[in-house]
Amino acid sequence: MIEHVNDADVSDIIKLISKSIKTCIGVLNAEADSLIACSVDEILWWKCHQESTAHYIYRVDGKVVGTILIKDFCYISNLFVDPDFHHQGIGKQLILHALAICKRCSPQSTVKLNSSFYAASFYQKMGFKQIGNAKNLPGGCIPFECAL
Length: 148
What we know:
The protein is an alpha+beta fold.
């Protein structure tokens, strides 16, 4: 079930992000720690900009197994699904929910995100188009866009 994030969820989200990065993104431990820190920074950004963001979790049997952050209603960040729950439609539900929020709230006609190499094919299946070259960063950084 998709729910709004509250402060009590933050530690579970950080654990989810850490597990997802360390399991799915093929990088060294130091690089994984850096990616995790960047994702935690996004959560801190959300806490300071809640008027222009939407942050959701997906919960199964009381456990946080997915998360997504929408920044300025036109940029998707921090989509993570627990690797034990991959291929169950959770990421798809979170993306579709985020796109509906963006369509309703954004002054923009598109929503953008940066993808890891690992998740690029998922975003393409969801209708996102690559809009630039991948940056040579740990795990990859591929810019995508989707029309609203």
